[in-house]
């Protein structure tokens, strides 16, 4: 958590509203392996990180709520009890979506005033969307003393994203943001919602993100189409989700479905298996095996699930040629954003310059590096 970000948000709140707010930090997330499996009731291996959204908020006596975004340099006004809030293809849709869900729980809510600041890049696959969903739902839950638990908040955020923002995401991002634990990865079964933590890091290895700087907006990508295709395949086999299908069953009747949908379903089944294999590799400290699983995951996302792009493929292929890099893959929804890379710590300085130069020569722009630490989930910050 970046205490400078919190101080900036706190200072702006004080200048604008004067009183003492409640302070919340809501992290972004990485995902080591298990991509596009969450909405198929499969397995994922994410972690909350030390980059995220800081929010200062309090109850307001005005007739409307005021929310200030430091990053967008914008102020939005809304009536928190307005049942007809509409989505505008704007960052504030995440707030309106959550507010509409809270209206179902609290008949009349007091208005609020808030300042939000972020050090998470938007559209980079680090789930700035879940960070804002979680910040606002966690904040309102505290402010109105509703006593909702973390799982209820995660589900509420997902509903807001699915129904109001229009992205048919799974639960991974909201869950990770809320349940994250310092220096741990989470292995989450998205069907039973059973989860366990795995300690990270390993001595001598780091997870570094390389940002292609290609920005995507999942609502306008083929993300929802992928989900639709997977549901159709599951339905064709009489299953509730791809989680209930195995490779033998899929292969036996593959001629009954379109080749493209077969490939996508196959990717999902293989990726679920890779999460199990990766978990074993981490426990046995087999970094070469873990790295290879990440590379296989990328190739599946590129060739079978088809959610990568030239820039991400170029980064992965360049990165894995470097001797210190054990594994690399695109991360998150895809179509742009970051790669996640497993790297030997003593090789980090050399690899950054080499990759940056190669990327600049090929695409005429600079890629960025983020060194992330695994961190606690959304929490209240106590005033110092
Ligand atoms: C986005 C969604 C998640 C998940 C990933 C892909 O981040 O919000 O629910 O589907 O893409 O793994």
Key traits:
384 residues, alpha+beta, Ribosomal Protein S5, domain 2, Alpha-Beta Plaits, six-stranded mixed beta sheet, four-stranded antiparallel beta sheet, 11 helices, 13 strands, globular, binds alpha-D-galactopyranose
Write the topology of this structure:
Blueprint: H1 3-17, E1 22-31, E2 43-44, E3 46-60, E4 65-69, E5 74-78, H2 93-103, E6 111-118, H3 128-143, H4 150-165, H5 172-179, E7 184-189, E8 195-199, E9 205-211, H6 223-236, H7 247-252, H8 259-283, H9 287-304, H10 310-321, E10 325-330, E11 338-344, H11 348-363, E12 368-371, E13 379-381
Parallel strand pairs: 4-6
Antiparallel strand pairs: 1-3, 1-13, 2-7, 3-6, 4-5, 7-8, 9-11, 9-12, 10-11
Report on the architecture of this protein.
The chain is of the alpha+beta class and 384 residues long. Helices cover 41% and strands 22% of the residues. It has 2 domains: 201 residues, 2-Layer Sandwich (Ribosomal Protein S5, domain 2), CATH 3.30.230; 171 residues, GHMP kinase, C-terminal domain (Alpha-Beta Plaits), CATH 3.30.70.890. It has a 6-stranded mixed beta sheet with strand order 5-4-6-3-1-13, sandwiched between helices. It has a 4-stranded antiparallel beta sheet with strand order 10-11-9-12. Strands 2-7-8 form a 3-stranded antiparallel beta sheet, sandwiched between helices. The protein starts with a helix and ends with a strand. Alpha-D-galactopyranose binds next to helix 5.
